Amino acid sequence: MNAIIPLVLDTLSSAALIFFAAVGLTLVFNVLRVLNVAHGSFYSIGAYVAASICAFIVSRHLNPYLSFVALLFSAALVAVVLGPLIESTLIRWTYGKSEAVQILITFGLFLILEDLQRMVFGVQSFYEDTPMRLMGSSSIGGVVYLNYQMFLVAMAVIVVFGLRLLIKHSRLGRLVTAVVADREMAQSIGVDTNKIFIFAFSLGVFLAALGGALAVPTSGVAPGLGADTMVLAFAVAAIGGLGQIEGAALAALIVALARVLAIYFVPSLDAVAPYAAMLIVLLVRPYGLFGAITTRRI
Amino acid sequence: MKFKTALSAFALVGCLGAAMPAFAQDKPASLGLGIFTFTSGPAAAYGMPGKNAADLMIDQINAAGGIGGVKIAPTYVDEAQGAQGVITEYRRLAAEPKNQVMLAALSSANCLALAPIAEQLEVPTVGWNCDTHQLLQDGKSKYVFRPNGNTVPEFVAYAVYLLAKKPDVKTVAIINPDYAFGHDAAKIFKAALHALKPDIQIVAELFPKLGSPNYQTEISRLTTARPDVVFSNLWGADLENFVRQAQPRGLFTSSQVILALGETVLQRVSLPDGVIVGVLGDGWWMSPDAAANPETKKFAEAYKAKFGEYPVFPSIKMANTILYVKAAYESAMKKNGGKWPSRAELAEAMKGSTVTTLTGKSVTRADNDGLVDQIVGVTVKSPTQSFPVIGDMVRYKGDALMPKEGQDPIAWISTLKPEFAASLPKPGSYK
Questions:
Q1: pLDDT (tens digit, 9 = 90+) per residue, A84-97?
Q2: Could you tell me the pLDDT band of residue B10, with boundaries at 50, 70 and 90?
Q3: Do residue B178 and residue A271 have CB atoms under 8 angstroms apart?
Q4: Rounded Cα gap, residues A142 and A126, in angstroms
Q5: Cβ separation of A6 and B249 shorter than 8 Å?
Q6: Among A76, A244, B260, B288, which has the minimal tally of Cβ within 10 Å of its Cβ?
């Protein structure tokens, strides 16, 4: 039993971080039908902004618990500033275009955002671990865990249920569902699809930035984080089925379990484990665990 | 006929021109120096101190009149662009005659990729970091030099120090980056431990991807293996991340931790007392030899004033490498009556040289590999600094931990006996 506890806890805490990296990507695809390659950049921008705000709080000797608020605030700030701006100036022009065009445009955006981050934040790593230190640690099954790791798991669960509540049980969510189901029909009955797209894209940016912000206290942020995150996010989205929020959660668990098992029992397979899991799932279910075959208009 | 004569004359001039770099020449307006390091990405945490030191050392040399009156004009190449980009940049710089020598590179993988090109283009190339023992193993290099030592003495030193400090150690776990440097270090460290104490068990070996931001699962795995010792040669942002994540999870109290590149983070993260750290050579700016050298003190203070922190050992390695190149130029010019040396003459001057550096001496062997001493110690609180420093130090002689030229290093390590370790200086002997 003692041997299983670390496996379970490591899988859960690892899955939480992976889930945050992927859920925004899958949400944006679900509503906008755009494969956003720049998603990883929003993750790293969220991390940089959170690290900067937390560092400001510490340097001004403000109440350190404000750093928890800063994590959420920084994600919201990134979403409010970048979401509407990028959706209305760039992403909007890709709707209905081929996947190749969408990927090229969002990849260009990714390169621009990566360079902008380098110009603004430099090339050195940023760390701000105040939230992690405030929460302390606990010994479970003979292994010391950071309470912050469990906080991440709780946050991931809250996000899954929060998104479900938003999509299924709010008016805004129903409008989003209507647009996803039939964009033209929704438009014809008076739904302002442009606003829905801005909202959905900004929510995707918020989720990515939140993932980055929540990762800062344990992992810091350094150039290159966006690219790594993007690759993993795509693997998770593919396993879960593009556009499936619950699918992303389950896929994050599968990827995390594959990595954890590799690290414990076959360390040399650590790097390939997530992608091996993706390959196996896609061989059995080509549209992902929760994905379904969709008809295509000609 | 006139056309043919003109063509022949043109061809002759062309041939002579092409042959010119092989001979001593007039002093150039400036000495171009291609310097390869990581200036972006997670590895910049290690690469930027090297660049900073190069900037400072070049400024100091230029302020004193340059090398033989010629000022140094560096061109920096970011190794984060990957091996293909690094090779392209190297070829581009080498094609310009003003760039007579390259300081390349930081990454072992890039050094291995550039070495055959350096030989092909006949450009003196000095590995300022380049730890892998594979670099000069064939002993045939004419233009590639490494004055700062290699992975064999660096990691044998840790095994010897550990066993002197903790002779009863039984179990060891390893966490190194997943590329040549990490795997080479693990192989050498394990071989040395098994040779010097055959009953030692390796209970976990992890090789996370270079640039991993998160080590939580690896830390759990290391903790569950309950090793007496955790050894790591993680570096740069990876090392900072690992320390920041492992310390609150108690890894530094449950096991004796060895951080082979730990000195690089002493000023950035809070390390507890008793962690075994070193500088992969003798490049500790506070060592007794360094403290006794006014040039080193001047360099360290100027570095602190310019960059806000004291030089870490990658800074010292870079500074020592530039001093090595300067010494080679001065030696070559002395040999040919003060004339500016060609690339070939410069390479010749590096062979077999003994150069006084900021922190000791670098002796270049016949195979172009450098012999430098190895300093290892443990973290201790400092009465003068706000960060931990290295105490209980030992300084192993450079040649004591190196196999002879042409000898297979792993085979040599396996011949080591406990008596060999007993003959070496003990922890605390370097004061």
A1: 999 999 999 888 88
A2: very low
A3: yes
A4: 31
A5: no
A6: B288
Are A118 and B207 within 8 A, CB to CB? no
B220 and A143 in contact by Cβ < 8 A?
A: yes
Whether residue B224 is found in the same domain as residue B163: yes
In a domain, residue A15? The reply is yes
Question: Of A230, A282, A239, whose CA–CA distance to A257 is shortest?
Answer: A239
> What's the pLDDT score for residue B186?
96
Mind listing the pLDDT tens digit for each residue in B326-370? 999 999 999 999 999 999 999 999 999 999 999 999 999 999 999
Q: What tens digit of pLDDT does each residue of B365-389 get? A: 999 999 999 999 999 999 999 999 9
What number is the ipTM of this complex? Answer: 0.88
Per CB-CB distance under 8 Å, the chain A contacts of B205 are 267
Contact across the interface for A267 and B39, Cβ inside 8 Å: no
Q: At what angle do helices B236-246 and B44-63 cross, to 10 degrees?
A: 130
Work out the minimum CA distance from A32 to partner chain B, whole angstroms: 31
pLDDT digits (tens, 9 = 90+) for B256-310: 999 999 999 999 898 999 999 999 999 999 999 999 999 999 999 999 999 999 9
B45, B220, B241 ranked by CB distance to A124: nearest: B45
Residue A2 pLDDT > 70: no
Q: Is B113 in the same domain as B159?
A: no
Q: Are B392 and B355 within one domain?
A: no
Here the CATH number for the domain that contains residue A118 is 1.10.3470
Q: What distance in Å separates the CA atoms of residue A162 and residue B10, rounded to the nearest whole number?
A: 80
Nearest to A143 among B44, B223, B237 (CB): B223
Number of domains in chain A: 1
| CATH code where residue B408 lies | 3.40.50.2300
Residue A296: band (very low, low, confident or very high) from pLDDT cuts 50, 70, 90: low
Inspect the interface and report whether the beta carbons of A118 and B221 lie closer than 8 Å.
Answer: no
**Domain contains B349:** yes
Q: Which of B364, B389, B413 is where one domain is finished?
A: B364
Q: How many domains does chain B have?
A: 2
Q: Is residue B16 over pLDDT 50? A: no
- Report how far residue B123's alpha carbon sits from residue B144's, in angstroms, rounded to the nearest whole number: 8
Q: What is the DSSP string of chain A?
A: -TTHHHHHHHHHHHHHHHHHHHHHHHHHHHHH----TTHHHHHHHHHHHHHHHHHHHHHTT--TTHHHHHHHHHHHHHHHHHHHHHHHHTGGGGTTS-HHHHHHHHHHHHHHHHHHHHHHH-SS-B---HHHHHH-EEEETTEEEEHHHHHHHHHHHHHHHHHHHHHHHSHHHHHHHHHHH-HHHHHHTT--HHHHHHHHHHHHHHHHHHHHHHHHHHH-B-TTHHHHHHHHHHHHHHHH-TT-HHHHHHHHHHHHHHHHHHHHH-GGGTTTHHHHHHHHHHHH-TT-SS--------
| A41 residue type, one letter | S
CB–CB contacts below 8 A, A to B? 107
Flag whether the pTM goes above 0.90.
Answer: no
